[in-house]
Amino acid sequence: MRISRFLLHFAMAALLFTSGCAALPVDGPESWNVRAGQHDPQSLPYALVRLNPQVLDVLANNLPRIATVFVDRSPPKDIKYGVGDTVTVTIFEAAAGGLFIPAEASVRPGNFITLPTQPVDSKGNISIPYAGDIRAAGRTQVEVQQEIVQALKNRAIEPQAVVSLVEQKTSLISVLGDVNAPLRFPASHAAEHLLDAITRAGGPRNPGYDEWLMLEREGRRALAPFGALVYEPVNNIYVHPSDTLYLYREPQTFLAFGASGTQGSFTFDAWRISLAEAVAKAGGLSDSQADPGSVFLYRGETREVAEHLGVDCSKFQGPIIPVIYDVNFRDPAGYFMATKFEMRSKDVIYISNAVIVEASKAINFFRNVVGSVNDPLTAANSLYTLKSAIAGTGGATTLITAAPIP
Questions:
Q1: Whole-model pTM?
Q2: Which domains does the chain have, with CATH numbers?
């Protein structure tokens, strides 16, 4: 009987440990499997990045912020005229008897003439008597005035010109989306910021942490939480002519799996949260199950960011690189770094089980088998079930009818 028990124990131990405990239930990959990389050529490859201060610096410089994309935060240059803008031109002469002011007009209160209001035509020009067509589109007020004076200086008496914008049809700013009064308004010579433009549109319809802003300018686009404009003034840059601002609501969520206090989907409930706050929202690390040294965060990074992180991107296809960040909460400094790691929507946190947890599962399985050793048929079927699971057959489906073990 003792020999039978010894053989049974030996067989069970051999099957379990040579298979890496693959037959035991688990809520995700083991930490050593994550760090070993993806061996299956048919599966999705990923890059493993250990969280450290250098990685935090790279991520901080690539946050979804307006200032990250539009680094030039200077006010816009002078507004330029465009096709369809309506202008009026006033021409002054130094004395009567010139090109526009007759000699008998010396008693007039001023030596000037105002031309009829006219739009910038489809060719980008305005018409000035005795000067012909003057280019206006793409030029500032001062540049158009100088061009008029240059064309008249040999015919008029010390001419001067003033060009005034009557109706602005170009150089407009559009504010759309989740605002109280979407509108399109002319850019002002007085520099305005993003929040000023949003205020013109009545402000956000639902001010809160789920609001996002998209800024499109000259074919470039930047996204940022609305809170970043309020709490990080560097993002509240000047608006430029032809800018488009679009506000929209998008609840931010993340997923938590593994040995966390609670598994599932969680909302940020703030315009930004850190990795440490996200782990806390998921119930923290399970004291009886988690391995603090094996906390992983799954995220897709752009190829540019991945290269800055030191990832070899040659084996990846497409613009998004799957990255797993490896965080060590067993190291006290890991908590400080986790407070600086900003979460993004749809991030996935996975906390691996401690090695002792898997060992405990194996021991409990042994105990169940040993407890059934007096029933040789049950013990043999348990052994067959384990062997079938390891072999990938999905478990035993046929009952063994072997003779009792002596």
A1: 0.76
A2: 1-63+269-406 (3.10.560.10), 86-167 (3.30.1950.10), 171-249 (3.10.560.10)
